[in-house]
Design a protein that fits this description.
Elements lengths: L23 H14 L3 E5 L20 E5 L4 E5 L2 E2 L4 H8 L1 H10 L7 E5 L4 H8 L6 E5 L9 E4 L2 H11 L5 E6 L4 E8 L2 E9 L2 E3 L6 H12 L14 H9 L13 E3 L11 E4 L6 H13 L5 E8 L9 E6 L5 H4 L9 H9 L4 H4 L5 E2 L2 H9 L5 E3 L8 E8 L5 H13 L3 E7 L4 E8 L1 H11 L7 E8 L5 E2 L2 E2 L1 H49 L1
Parallel strand pairs: 16-22, 19-23
Antiparallel strand pairs: 1-2, 1-17, 2-3, 3-4, 5-8, 6-7, 6-8, 9-10, 9-14, 10-13, 11-12, 14-15, 18-20, 18-21, 19-20
Helix pairs in contact: 1-10
Length: 531
Amino acid sequence: MTLTKPSRGLAHLDPNFVHEAQGDELCSYLIALEGWRRGLKLTWHAAGSEPFRSIKTWYDERPGKLFSLSDGDNEHFYFRSRGDAVTDSAVETGMDKEKTKTVLQTAGVPVPKGIVLDLTKSQEELQKSVEALSFPLVIKPLDGSFGKDVFTRIESWDHFFRVIDQISETANTYMCEEFVFGSEYRLYVVGNEVVSAIKRVPASVEGDGKLTVARLIEQKNTDRKQHPRLKNCLITIDDEIQEVLDKKGLSLKTVLPDGEALSLRSKSNISLGGEAVDCLDELSGEMKKTAVNAAHAVDGFAHGGVDMITEDHQNGAEAVVIEMNPTAQIGSSVFPSYGRGRDVPAKIVDYYFPKTRKMKEQENYMYFIYKDGLIPLETGVARKAEAPDVPRGFKGVELKVKNLTNKMTNIYYFKQQMMKKGIVGYLRSADGGKHGEMVVMSTPEKLSEWLDEIKETDYLFEIERVDVTHNTKHLYHTFDISGYVTNWKGVLREQTAAARKNKILNMMTSVYQLKSKIKIKRMFIKEETDA
């Protein structure tokens, strides 16, 4: 398929400001940030804390996946993207593909035809149980995820038993289904609404007539590392990719013609290098209705991902549900590879705190620093850590400055003083400190007081111009000097490199001069000897 570049991201979410939260942590950060910006009290919790002991979680030893939001009257607890309105029963159903299929079938939700394989049975018994299904087939674990141990397009009995031999030592039971032709979609349902829909496209590369397949994969991975959702979902060259290339008569050394697309996998999982293409506006009403019906069929499934397959998502072709994920990743919906980002975090916070919807209208561009808030939990000093309250009623100014100091101690002291005064913003420098810019935000009173003070200060920088700035600047809830420090470190590196180069040149010159003196002296000695 032809993919186009993203048409529009979410104005209030800059990918450059969420880079600290990676993988599953991105889900937590996005929802926590949305709630925090609305004035809700944000608290991070350590693994095993109350009430998370009674909530089904996993791999939560590292802080950053468990948090709560409170409006003072109500408090809700979250594990990654899943809030406490989603019951443990719904989680268990979603983790068991056999149970999911039974529940959905009972509710009249379309699912692929399939059976559970008992791998302890003989080949004859297995074949007899599968004969009710039609090739091609799909075999997948009952409780797996991320596309692991999923085998698609099994076309023959020989192929079927080769797969059985491969998986027989992993588990005794697997799901076997008829392969459904079409593309895979992840719809995210909140209550009665489908709030996002992405088409999952298998990992692929596009030729340029110059680079090999291996280099194209490397190039694509470089691009993915810059993406907030995809940076940990790189394309890994494995047996599946090698098999796909072999079937097509290609290799990693093949140079693809300019513009020719090459699909590298049959599985479309984002974690395996797939792409997420936003398609919410194109989705048929029938497909949305099926997704909502599936969510309602599972008791306690207040919100989560519904995975579906259809050959045509626009014109009402039948769509079947293949999985239910109550703890679904939302990063691909917020930051799709292609198309429009969808504000799933806002929809989730709306669901739990409907009275805060009006706060959403007052767009907030402030970010808390993710890692800083987790330090008390990581060091074991505390079992929970409260985030500072979001600033309200802040105004801002933008300053153009010049002749910035190169004394780091002065700049670090300046940052400390800004934080003590309740002033946030940033200081950045360029041209080795010749020029720079500073954005400062605080209450009108504190801002006015600070401006009077700073005009008397000349040991840090000189002020060229002061402008009023709108509250649309993306800022961390701190006074950020990293742009200043990075620039000066770069300058220092250049100066150090230049000094080292000059030192080497001076040494070479000295050696050359010394050799010349020795040569001249030898000439004089030779002349005296000859005489």
